[in-house]
Amino acid sequence: MSPSFEVRDPSAVDLTVGHIEAPGAVTLRAVSYVRWTVQVRALESSLSRSHDGRSVKPLDSFLLRTDGEDYFPIDTRDQTLASGSNGTFDLTVDYRVKADAETHRDGDYALTVIYTIAADWRSLSSASDSDDPPCGGTRTRAVVTPSRRG
Asked: Which has the closest alpha carbon to 121: 101, 105, 135, 110?
C-alpha cells in the first residue's frame, strides 16, 4: 500500500509551533492468524524542492507515529511501525512535517509512504520447522487495508 501524502501549506499557527500536523492521516487494518509486523518507508529521499528551487525539504522533516506513540522520522529503509499477534487491529497513523517561520519555504511538498505487512509463518503452532508457509499459505491470512480520513 502506497498512499502519497501532499503536505498542505502551513498556517501561521503551524509556523509558530514548528510543524504541520495531520492526525489520523491513514488508518491501517491488520487481520492475521499469525504474528505480523507492519513496516513503513519513504519512496523518495526528500519531500522535494521549494518553489524558488533554493531549498530542499529533507526527509527527516517528515515524522509519523501510530496510536499516540512518540513521533519518529521516516527513512527510505524499512522501519517497524507496529507488530502484533493473531487478531484484527486498527492502527491510526499520524503525520507531522517540520515547518518553522525562519526556515520554511513555500513549495509543493509530497512523499510516497509505503506500508508493508509481514507475517511470521513460524508462529503457526502446526507449522513444521521450515520457514516456508504451510500449505502454500492457505491457512493464514495477513492484510493491511488503508482508509483515509478526511
From this structure: 135
**pLDDT of 47 higher than 70:** yes
Write the DSSP string, 16-40: HHTEEEEEEEEEEEEEESSEEEEEE
- Domain membership of residue 59 as a residue range: 4-124+133-148
CATH code for the domain in which residue 9 is found: 2.60.40
| Percent of the chain that is helix, strand, coil (3-state, to 5) | 10, 50, 40
Question: pLDDT-based confidence at 124, cuts 50/70/90?
Answer: low
How many domains are contained in the chain? 1
Q: Cβ atoms within 10 A of the Cβ of 128, count?
A: 9
- How many Cβ atoms from other residues are within 10 Å of residue 121's Cβ? 17
Distance CA 39, CA 89 (A): 15
Task: Give 140's contacts (C-beta < 8 A, 6+ positions apart).
Answer: 32, 33, 34, 119, 121, 124, 133, 134
> Residue 128: its pLDDT value, please?
45
Contact between 113 and 78 (Cβ < 8 Å): no
Report the predicted TM-score, pTM, of the whole model to 2 decimal places. Answer: 0.74
